[in-house]
Give the backbone structure.
Amino acid sequence: MLRIEHITKRYGDTCAVDDLSLHIAPGEIYGFIGHNGAGKTTTLKAAVGLLTPDAGEIFVCGHSVKKEPLVCRRCLSYIPDNPDLYEFLTGHQYFSFVADVYRVPADIRKERIEHYSRMLGITDALSQPISTYSHGMKQKTAIIAALMHDPKLILMDEPFVGLDPLASHQLKTLMAEHCRNGGAIFFSTHVLEVAEKLCHKVALIRCGKLIASGTMEEVRGDNSLEEVFLELTEQEADE
Amino acid sequence: MKALLRIRFLYLLDGWRKVLTPGSKAGDTKGKNTGKIIGFSLLLLYAFGAMLAGITFFCVQMSVFVEIGLDWLYFSLAFLAGAALTMLGNVYSTQNQLYNARDNELLLAMPVKMEHICLSRMVFLLLGASAYMLAVTLPALVVYWVRFGMTLPVFCGYLVMFICMVLFCQSISCVLGWLLHQLLSRIRSKALGSLLFMTVFMILYFWVYAKIMTRFEDILGQMVQLGTDLAALFTDLGGFFVWLGQGVMGSPAALLIIGGITIFTTVLGYYFTIATYRSSLLIRKAAEKNSRTHKTAAVRTPVVAVCLKECRRFFTCSVYLTNLGLGVIMTAFAGVGGVVFRSRILEPMHAVGIPQEVLLPLVFLGIFGFIQSMSAISAPSISLEGKSLWIPASLPLDGWTILSGKLLFHLLATVPVSVLAVLVLGIVYGVSPAVLACLLLYAAAMPALSGILGLRLGLSFPRFDWLNEVYPCKQSMAVLFTMLVMMGMAFLSCGLYLLVLHLTGGLFASTAVFPAAVLAVLPSLGLTGIQYFRLKKHGSPKMEELCRSL
């Protein structure tokens, strides 16, 4: 579903991502874990095509993000860490805009808006301008918009930030449901407990370099993910 | 406080750096950047110089009052004009930078006194007010100095009055800015509020302008009488207007009184501003219940979806609507006004002696060409994407679809009004069908050119890190350049029309109105076509490059 092959991205002298390779298969929830500035957001943005890597290639559903960006974007959805939405639109108008772009039929979009907004508890706010929404409501709006065209792959940057416990639980349910239906999710997080419970596979990144990846069992062994993460990052720092 | 002032100064400095070196990249050579700075500085100097020349012209006319011994009236009028300009220019800035600033919450979350945040904003608003006041009163002082000499009391009086009036005007601007903020926060449909505001403003503007212009010759011929009448009126109205001028002339009593009034209003304005600033930030109204029901939208094409999104942005952003919708409103006004005042407009045309069929196309080319320079709706639309650029960038939209949607909205907002106005006026004024067809092409081509050019320049000079919409809508190079090029095109069209008439028998006996109209329209049509293909060829990859630079 998502194949990242040896990507490198530099910002001036700083190497944000260094020769990173990953493979996310259909039906997988893949957690991407790392400290602040480790290169998680850069990798996710490169996968969407929001920035071009200096080296390497990324494939979404078998299509190159570099060569066929629009085909790739039709297959995926992206939720950034801080969703700056169109504040002058109402929630309904924003969903209509996104649905129009993906050409989602009227009856299906109506059904999805109703279903997901009820599930995440923002039905009453959809007629209000997005400028009046709280951070959590904006996050929920971005999640619903991302699910509007039933994408095969969802890329999320810190999706649980700002969500209330109920919405957080609902999002986890949605993520699991999406993967059961054959979709894939690649998301970054700092919350190791969430990753531990939710993910089939995880990748640990430090200073742009992949330090561990694989199934949850492979990565953590008998320890907790937190212990493994701390141990690995300390080892890397010593080296 | 020092840190707040520093950060504000750095933000303004950064804004000016980006205005002076738009589109500069890290890899640009020093020479290239210096060239850009010099080029844009010259452009800004030209615009500023043109404004100063106009003000100086009026000051020279007003100096007649000094000749008849009404020195105080001369300075009173200069400071009143300065106060009007300051308040007109600073009310929106006050509302935006004080009550509507996006970093208000960020600063409030820090251990900073609210008074200090407010004061740090006020310092730069006062600098802005000083610039406005200086733009009018300095030419007045220079004209006075050159024509009548300068004395120390007058110079000192001017300085004191200048400081007093800046403080006084800023205090009033704070009250008006707060009222504007209250008004805008209460109006559900910002579009309706802004349109009403614009319409009232335009009616008042045209009424005053028409009054002045119809009596301009009389006014110039009767300046002495006018001065005497104004002096009597000001004396009847009360002290403030007289003290204002007398203060500049060095009258200690007037200086004391105006100084007292200023201190009083400034102290009052300060406490009012602090109180309203606090309440506007801390006392939030609960989000009003919106009873609007959302209809199940029909499925639209991506281009129409982008167009609709642009439309909603335009009609919900008062800064965008009032600054760049001006041309559309003026086009409508020109159409309606031309029909209503047909006989009054034709009267001076007949007096000139040039045949109506010769003069009318020139008037149409000039008026509708210049008005289009005020409709650069598409020019700020790229920069207005701001931090939301990730949305179109992450959706399956290619660069051309995004640009087409933006262009479509520009065309829908401008072309129908322009074509309809020219069509109605052409019929009402009896323009021949062949010439009218040319003018209709011109009325469609000019707004189209403005839209295409606006997008091309928007792509060349993007800026996404603005704090409020004032920068992309009012101060961006894309808007400024689009306006200048459109003015140039209007000049060119009029010039070509006159040239053909001149070569074929002159204005009074020309038989070549149609060929002249054809030639006048050709540059705008040609440039529109060229720019369209260039936008299609280079704009799409440029837009995609911008999306990839997140």
